[in-house]
Design goal:
Elements (H helix, E strand, L loop, with lengths): L11 H17 L7 H23 L8 H11 L4 H8 L5 H14 L9 H8 L3 H7 L7 H11 L3 H8 L17 H16 L12
Helix pairs in contact: 1-2, 1-3, 1-4, 2-5, 5-8
Family: Belongs to the Mo25 family.
InterPro entries: ARM-like (IPR011989), ARM-type_fold (IPR016024), Mo25 (IPR013878)
Pfam families: Mo25
């Protein structure tokens, strides 16, 4: 009898849509009348959704990723601004959810939809997201995660070309670059010159998190 009331498994697209809804909630900030228990519950659910998406993309010890599921998840993820929301809301997530989010973003960079890397298409139209990732390096708690995301995003040759913009120095590419932040400048130059210059194929392994 209990089987009749068993909840229907969430599809990959459902996972993304529910994640997006919770990120919108988190981005809006908890209203003054929002109970702390509700906020915690939302963050816990967001963490579970992120783990589920990671499992879809990477598989687990018992099963390999299913191509169709990866296709559905990727297509829905880039249909709207889920990547932007995730990057913006990363500081509000707990450590484990950040780790999972970083791995999800990294994997999505190499997922194809109809023979296209739609992550690359999205980034070309939202190149300002790289500014946000760079600015995240000012926060020691977030630098590892933002840095790993950035490294994977700029492995797309066309994205790297847009960022470097016809031979500009890496340290002057973005409008949010702060020349007074020496560490940021050093990191920026390294990522956008040495790293890109050494990439001829596509992806290398994401940093261990």
């Amino acid at each position: 009898m209990k089987a009749l009331f068993k909840s229907k498994p969430r599809t990959p697209a459902d996972l993304v849509r529910q994640t997006r809804d919770l990120l919108i909630f988190a981005d809006g900030g908890a209203a003054s009348d929002t109970k702390e228990s509700k906020r915690r519950k939302s963050m816990m659910e967001l963490g579970k959704l992120m783990r589920d998406m990671k499992q879809v993309l990477y598989g687990d010890s018992e099963s390999e990723p299913v191509a169709e599921a990866c296709f559905q998840l990727t297509q829905e993820f880039f249909r709207e601004n889920t990547l932007r929301l995730l990057i913006i809301c990363l500081p509000k997530l707990n450590l484990e959810t950040r780790k999972d989010a970083t791995k999800v973003v990294a994997n999505l960079q190499r997922q194809q939809v109809q023979s296209r890397l739609i992550a690359c298409d999205y980034l070309e139209k939202n190149i300002d997201l790289l500014d946000i990732l760079i600015s995240g390096y000012d926060n020691n708690d977030l630098a590892l995660h933002y840095g790993a995301m950035l490294r994977e995003c700029i492995r797309h040759q066309s994205v790297a070309n847009v960022v470097l913009g016809g031979g500009q120095d890496a340290s002057s590419v973005t409008t949010t670059y702060n020349p007074g932040t020496k560490f940021q400048a050093k990191f920026y130059d390294k990522i956008l010159t040495e790293e890109i210059g050494g990439v001829k194929g596509h992806f290398g392994p994401i940093n261990a998190l």
